[in-house]
Write a structure and sequence with these properties.
The protein is α+β, with helices and mostly antiparallel strands. The chain has 3 helices and 6 strands.
Length: 144
């Protein structure tokens, strides 16, 4: 994966999430590799349903965050930006506490679109949610 010319760091990415939904949900990026972005999100009062389990919408927000950053790390940030087009998610296991961990990996990285698979697991590495996320790659300035 070609890191954008601005050489964005994990610290920069996490800092850019301040005062956003990302920070409100407690999402943090942990690792950027050649073909992945990995992060974690707490399962607590911010991310649980009234029934006490991880909210599916929180999982989707987590997946989209990881997928968007994965795409952003794959393009030249000086000339391109990434925006979500479509996301789906299958929720396969309930989680009541602790953290969930997500890994975004590319399925397709084209010039104008990317497709990323995001797998979210619990602390025992059991699958919680699997998501597929399609991203548009726009030239700057895009007017978006």
């Amino acid at each position: 994966m070609a890191v954008a010319t601005s050489e964005r760091s994990l610290a920069d990415a996490n800092a850019r999430g301040r005062n956003t939904l990302i920070a409100h949900l407690g999402i943090e990026l942990l690792e950027v590799g050649d073909d992945l972005v990995r992060g974690r999100m707490p399962v607590d009062q911010r991310t649980r349903t009234p029934a006490g389990v991880l909210h599916g919408g929180a999982s989707v927000a987590f997946a989209e965050t990881l997928g968007t950053w994965a795409a952003a790390y794959s393009v030249d940030a000086a000339t391109q930006q990434c925006v979500g087009l479509e996301i789906n998610a299958n929720h396969v296991r309930a989680v009541r506490g602790g953290y969930v961990y997500g890994v975004a990996r590319p399925i397709h990285r084209g010039k104008r679109t990317h497709v990323w698979e995001i797998r979210i697991s619990d602390e025992d590495d059991k699958l919680v949610c699997v998501s597929r996320f399609t991203v548009a790659i726009l030239d700057r300035p895009s007017g978006y």
